[in-house]
Amino acid sequence: MIKKILIVDDSPVARRMLKSCLPKDRGFELFEASNGKEGFEKYKDIRPDLTFMDLTMPVMTGYESLEEIIKYDKDAIVIIATADIQMKAIKTVLDSGAYMVLRKPLKEEDIQKALSVAEDTLLKQKGSVNA
Amino acid sequence: MPESYTLTEEEREILQELMNIAFGKSAADLADVINTHVELRIPDIKLMPISELPAYVQEKIKGYTNIDMVEQSFYGRFKGDAVLVFSQGAGRGLISLLQNDEHEALESDPIDILETETLMEAGNILISACVGKFAEMLKDVVTYAPPMVVFNKHYSEAISLNHDKKDMAAIVMKTDFTFTKGDVSGFLFLITAQESIKWLKEALQSFMEQYE
Predict the structure, then answer these.
(1) For strand B169-179 and strand B185-192, is the pairing parallel, antiparallel, or unpaired?
(2) For B28-64, how does the pLDDT look when each residue is reduced to its tens digit (9 = 90+)?
(3) B208 contacts A16? CB cut-off 8 A
(4) What is the C-alpha to C-alpha distance for residues B51 and B36, in angstroms, rounded to an integer?
(5) Distance between CA B78 and CA B134 in Å, rounded?
(6) Is A105's CB within 8 Å of B212's CB?
(7) How many Cβ atoms are within 10 Å of A54's Cβ, its own excluded?
(8) Domain that holds residue A119
(9) How many CB contacts within 8 angstroms connect chain A with chain B?
């Protein structure tokens, strides 16, 4: 089950939009970071079940932060939420280990689907650890 | 400047995010056509009297000595001017990218016509996709005047001041970009007409209500 969610985006508006698309009755613990560096630091601190990551950010981009997170935890589930929907951007982050890419502006149904798929993956990961 | 023509921090942040989304869409549209990647930056949002606009634009583009520009006006409740400023020679860079995409006819046309048409086409894609997406998110529909291409201007002549409008205000949304191929970079300025500001402020609030 997803408990901790980390949202990494330099835009407070984008973070607010994303949070509003998350189901309110699931009791998620939400954490926020405003650039890729802070996002990576918080990832190591809190070990979220799921991370939403923007790409175009100051200090450290989402591309770099994603690479650092995957280097640190190869099973990390990082969903890229971005306005940069160019094929090269999508291919680059998927090659770097992103779990999936969502296009901004985010829609509630896209977030719900992403949560559901990510939850299946988490269950499988836990199953393979316990086996 | 009248007090109603100030931007709150929240309005500025919403505009920045919407501009980010809108330009992301237009970059993707252009990248599909010219087979390159457009590197995006964080947009800059300012509200200023029109009299300060030329100095602001000149400061932003001072890294370029000479520039090529595509200008296009748009009309809706969201109304204003889009000014796309390229480093001089961008047209030729874009032509080389298009030729890689097997646009065979380009080789037979004179280079100045090709440059004009290429800049106009690239400008049209970037501006209309960006302005269109921006307006769509705020539930507006815009129409466009034909784009106008201006070649080889000194950067200090980028924006000429219309004296009839110098007491008016404008919201200026600026983003800069670099193409990973073709040695092309530039800036897109969206300059919102003063008569749109009241509508824009209300539209921003309505947009965010769906996320509350």
Answers:
(1) antiparallel
(2) 998 888 878 898 888 999 888 888 888 888 888 888 8
(3) yes
(4) 37
(5) 9
(6) no
(7) 29
(8) 4-126
(9) 61
